TrEMBL record:
<dbReference type="Pfam" id="PF00128">
    <property type="entry name" value="Alpha-amylase"/>
</dbReference>
<keyword id="KW-0326">Glycosidase</keyword>
<comment type="similarity">
    <text>Belongs to the glycosyl hydrolase 13 family.</text>
</comment>
<keyword id="KW-0378">Hydrolase</keyword>
<feature type="domain" description="Glycosyl hydrolase family 13 catalytic">
    <location>
        <begin position="13"/>
        <end position="420"/>
    </location>
</feature>
<dbReference type="InterPro" id="IPR045857">
    <property type="entry name" value="O16G_dom_2"/>
</dbReference>
<dbReference type="InterPro" id="IPR013780">
    <property type="entry name" value="Glyco_hydro_b"/>
</dbReference>
<dbReference type="InterPro" id="IPR006047">
    <property type="entry name" value="GH13_cat_dom"/>
</dbReference>
<protein>
    <recommendedName>
        <fullName>oligo-1,6-glucosidase</fullName>
        <ecNumber>3.2.1.10</ecNumber>
    </recommendedName>
</protein>
<dbReference type="InterPro" id="IPR017853">
    <property type="entry name" value="GH"/>
</dbReference>
Length: 557
């Protein structure tokens, strides 16, 4: 496979609203990011993925875009953006933007036109339908943010489709003119000098013609519309067309956020010969702790399932496509609270999870705060939450009679605001994030978990991430080596090998809170990295892993 710069890159995701506030309005901003570029350089990352910074009324914190070619006022100006891009490039850091084109804001100029009349030239940029004769909605799909996926617009007495909030109407990708406008917009950003795109729910843009009703799962209020828009009929055609018309002409990184993409789909999306995208974000490992009732139906974490899932992706895409690797993003709870242990073994388990992910094959993504082991937050009242997904779900389910205490419990475990509390820079008020009042409360554990402390402690999670990033830059084995699962049936251990040319690395990760003995068959004299300061007890036959221990051995053959 031809080598690409993004093969051995590590990406760091910034959620600008929560990163660093430079002007005291309680909202992070672009100048705040510029102030922290040296911090990111110290960590050693290669690429920043910026969550949306475009002009937006912030119904969904920037994922509802009013103007694709302007910067959100709260974040700064286009001049600030250009300065950020220059200053990052000066430090050898690339910048990838978020591309949100499944939908726009309802305040976008296209939608303002579209809703005016049925014969407006922009009418067909969105998906409009009238009610059925009996007055029922155009179809039975539910919105991903609760309620129906259709909203009535009184001006023309028709409904528009919104897979997300009412303020995020879906763009009509069947419309050739809309597609061309999007490609031109992408090209203008690339010409500005950016280094690629993370493409928001990009595998939802092609809907089944006729928008048929979907099956309604038992007990559900709405049909599972995903049957008719996930990996829809024209998705590969659209991506190929977009690639040809825009980013395919530049040496940039593209990663498609793709809920519901299987390994078979991912091979089609990422096979370099097909010229669609470089890699996708799968959701399969993020769904392992959800039950049949969906995301809020919280299930215990099952390590065996995680092992099987990662192994499936590692093996299936080897030499055929490319994986992206992530534990966290702005939509997911904090991994140390989710799959690790965020009290006694917070440091050990955060480092162990980092080891597990960063030695896999693919491009790793670190989400802001992960590198200092930030944890989930548990606000006591629903009023303290800002996220539209949480608020809509709360309203719908309390109206149906669900127990508020139970809902709050699932929000504590799964809510997106877990990831969105401001970055804890130091032990001063509001964690040093702002001199004003933060838009979302800072996690109260900021006096103990913060960047300043991490930078002062040579054994911190931060410096461990730094080592893992450096290892990837030094070793082709991590980037290109073959993966194999070992100790498949060990209930609390995830162990695997990576093999390249004449070397094999053995990676052992313990999820147990007690010592665990595993058999070994290889030489254990060459230790690459581990999360305890001293070596574990190992003989020719067995290795004793301490709680949440991660250890990596290298052998030559
Ligand atoms: C996925 C984004 O990551 C999420 O934050 C957003 O709410 C939806 N797409 C809609 O844009």
């Amino acid at each position: 496979m031809e080598r690409k710069w993004w093969h051995d890159s590590v990406v760091y995701q910034i959620y600008p609203r929560s990163f660093n506030d430079s002007n005291g309005d309680g909202i992070g901003d672009l100048v705040g990011i510029i102030e922290k570029l040296d911090y990111l350089k110290e960590l050693g990352i290669d690429v920043i993925w910026l969550s949306p910074v475009y002009d937006s009324p912030n119904d969904d914190n920037g994922y509802d875009i009013r103007d694709y070619e302007a910067i959100m006022d709260e974040f700064g100006t286009m001049a600030d953006f250009d300065r950020l891009l220059d200053q990052a490039h000066e430090r050898g850091i690339k910048i990838v933007m978020d591309l949100v084109v499944n939908h726009s804001s309802d305040e976008h100029a296209w939608f303002a036109e579209s809703r005016k009349s049925k014969d407006n030239p922009y009418r067909d940029y969105y998906i409009w339908r009238s009610a059925h004769e009996d007055g029922t909605l155009p179809n039975n799909w539910g919105s991903i943010f609760s309620g129906p996926a259709w909203e009535l617009d009184e001006a023309t007495n028709e409904y528009y489709l919104h897979l997300f909030s009412k303020k995020q109407p879906d763009l009509n990708w069947e419309n050739e003119k809309l597609r061309q406008e999007v490609y031109q917009m992408i090209t203008r950003w690339l010409d500005r000098g950016i280094d690629g795109f993370r493409m928001d729910v990009i595998n939802l843009i092609s809907k089944t013609p006729g928008l048929p009703d979907a099956t309604v799962p038992p007990g559900a209020l709405y049909g599972e519309g995903g049957q008719h828009y996930i990996n829809g009929p024209r998705i590969h055609e659209f991506l190929k067309e977009m690639n040809d018309a825009s980013f395919g002409n530049y040496d940039v990184l593209t990663v498609g956020e793709m809920p519901g993409a299987t390994t078979e789909d991912a091979i089609l999306y990422t096979d370099p010969a097909r010229k669609e995208v470089n890699m996708v974000f799968t959701f399969e490992h993020m769904d392992l702790d959800s039950g049949p009732g969906g995301k809020w139906d919280v299930q215990p974490f099952d390590l065996q399932k995680l092992k099987q899932n990662f192994t499936k992706w590692q093996v299936a895409l080897h030499e055929k496509g490319w994986n992206s690797l992530y534990w966290n993003n702005h939509d997911q709870p904090r991994v140390v609270s989710r799959f690790g242990e965020d009290t006694t073994y917070r440091v050990e388990s955060a480092k162990m999870l980092a080891t597990l992910l960063h030695l896999l094959k693919g491009t790793p993504y670190i989400y802001q705060g992960e590198e200092i082991g930030m944890t989930n937050v548990a606000f006591e009242s629903i009023e303290e939450y800002e996220d539209i997904e949480i608020r809509n779900m709360w309203k719908e389910r309390t109206e149906q009679g669900a127990s508020p205490a139970e809902l709050l419990r699932s929000i504590h475990v799964k809510g997106r605001d877990n990831a969105r509390t401001p970055i804890q820079w130091d032990a001063t008020e509001h964690g040093g994030f702002t001199t004003g009042t933060p838009w979302l409360k800072v996690n109260p554990n900021y006096p103990t978990i913060n960047v300043e402390k991490a930078l002062q402690d040579p054994d911190s999670i931060f410096y461990y991430y730094k080592q893992l990033i450096a290892l990837r830059h030094q070793h082709d084995l991590i980037v290109y080596g073959e993966y194999a699962l070992i100790l498949e049936d060990a209930p609390h251990i995830y162990a695997y090998t990576r093999t390249y040319e004449n070397q094999t690395w053995y990676i052992y990760c313990s999820f147990a809170t007690e010592d665990t003995i595993v058999p070994v068959t290889h030489d254990s004299s060459d230790r690459v990295i581990g999360n305890y300061s001293d070596a574990p007890h190992v003989t020719d036959e067995q290795l004793t892993l301490r709680p949440y221990e991660a250890i990596v051995y290298r052998t030559h053959h």
